[in-house]
Specification:
mainly alpha, 11 helices, 5 strands
Length: 259
């Protein structure tokens, strides 16, 4: 008779078994209590897969609409096996799902699919981000003149940026229709700014100039430095003032320093 496994060994075997490794000799160590051990373990496996698949449904409704239930279920099952949950909060689950879609040969005909998923995960992150008090534009007037070049803006924790070679915002909006028409993909790629606006996630398409500027600000670059870098390749109609007014109006500036 084989030696009983330790508790850590049993836990690891349980994880492997419920994720699909049926070669693990786990059932012999499980009391069925009226059911075959495999059937009792199958209850846990089904519960885990159902709960994690439901979490992916919630996070990626547009992807689900684009590919259909059968494809999505298959992709979700593969993702669950390869990326088991490491958090007790189901809202944390699914961050690497876009990367999986990008690697799936079955999705090769939908070149935009992974980027739509990236947009949806950015929506998830924006929605779940921490709160922060917004500053008003009068904050800029308080910056000493000799420190203006050192000014750094802190942007809201929920602000997200997504850039794609595909019209991902238009595709996402298409998926919100009850009875959508045929999907048109004749638009150029889009850059999208996302943030939490009260009880919803707001999104807007932005120019390459705004995207570049905001990326630098999020990375901690000074406003002067980010502006100078952006202006090197900016279009003639780049309007720094319009970008800043939008950030303040949306409550996306939450701090500033000039040390």
């Amino acid at each position: 008779m084989s030696t009983a496994p330790s508790l850590p060994e049993l836990q690891r075997a349980f994880t492997r078994w419920v994720l699909g490794d049926q070669q693990v000799p786990l059932p012999q160590w499980v009391a069925g209590n009226g059911l075959a051990s495999e059937i009792r373990l199958g209850i846990y496996r089904n519960t885990i897969f159902n709960n994690l698949t439901a979490a992916l449904h919630t996070a990626y409704p547009a992807v689900l609409k684009l590919v259909g239930e059968d494809f999505f279920e298959g992709a979700a099952a593969r993702y669950i096996r390869e990326q088991p949950s490491r958090s007790g909060n189901l809202q944390d689950y699914g961050a690497a799902f876009p990367a999986l879609l990008a690697q799936m040969p079955e999705a090769a005909g939908l070149a935009y699919l992974a980027d739509v998923a990236r947009l949806e995960w950015a929506r998830q992150e924006a929605w779940l981000a921490a709160d922060a008090d917004a500053l008003g534009p009068e904050t800029l007037a308080a910056v000493p003149e000799d420190r203006q070049t050192a000014l750094r803006l802190q942007l809201h924790p929920g602000l997200r940026l997504v850039a794609s070679a595909h019209p991902v915002l238009a595709i996402w909006e298409f998926c919100q229709q009850d009875k959508p028409d045929h999907l048109q993909l004749d638009q150029a790629g889009q850059r999208v700014l996302l943030w939490r606006d009260n009880s919803q996630v707001a999104m807007r398409g932005i120019t390459a100039d705004w995207y570049g500027l905001l990326t630098l600000l999020l990375a901690g670059e000074s406003l002067a430095g980010a502006t100078q870098t952006t202006l090197l390749n900016a279009s003639p109609d780049f309007d720094l003032g319009a970008c800043l007014r939008m950030l303040f109006a949306a409550g996306l500036v939450t701090g500033c320093r000039w040390d």
